[in-house]
Structure formats: structure tokens, C-alpha cells
Write a structure and sequence with these properties.
two-stranded antiparallel sheet
Length: about 60
């Protein structure tokens, strides 16, 4: 996904692209923190689909 992110960024398409992320989720309701991304968003509650522009801290 990192390479795809950089390609999308290079083409100026971050605002149009979305990523579907998969993480191990213990509780599935946001309490345990096992699915937290670097930007503080939780895959189980805030995702699993995120705008590419919101994933800068994950892939740069």
C-alpha cells in the first residue's frame, strides 16, 4: 500500500483515492486500541475505509 500511496500522491490524486485497511481487532468497538493507526484513528470505529489524504502519517 505504501507504493500505491506514493504513486497516488505523485499524481495529485490523494483527495480522490480511498484505502480499505485491515487490522487485527480484539474488541471491534474501539476500546482495546489494537487497531489504532499512527494518526490516532481506529480501523474498527473510524474505518475500515479511509481517504488517502488522511493516511499521511501511515505511509510517509
Amino acid at each position: 500500500l505504501r507504493e500505491i500511496y506514493h504513486t497516488i500522491k505523485k499524481e495529485g490524486l490523494l483527495d480522490k483515492a480511498e484505502f480499505s485497511l485491515e487490522r487485527y481487532m480484539r474488541c471491534g468497538i474501539g476500546i482495546c486500541g489494537s487497531c489504532v493507526l499512527n494518526n490516532g484513528r481506529r480501523v474498527c470505529k473510524d474505518g475500515p475505509v479511509f481517504k488517502a489524504s488522511k493516511l499521511k502519517s501511515e505511509y510517509e
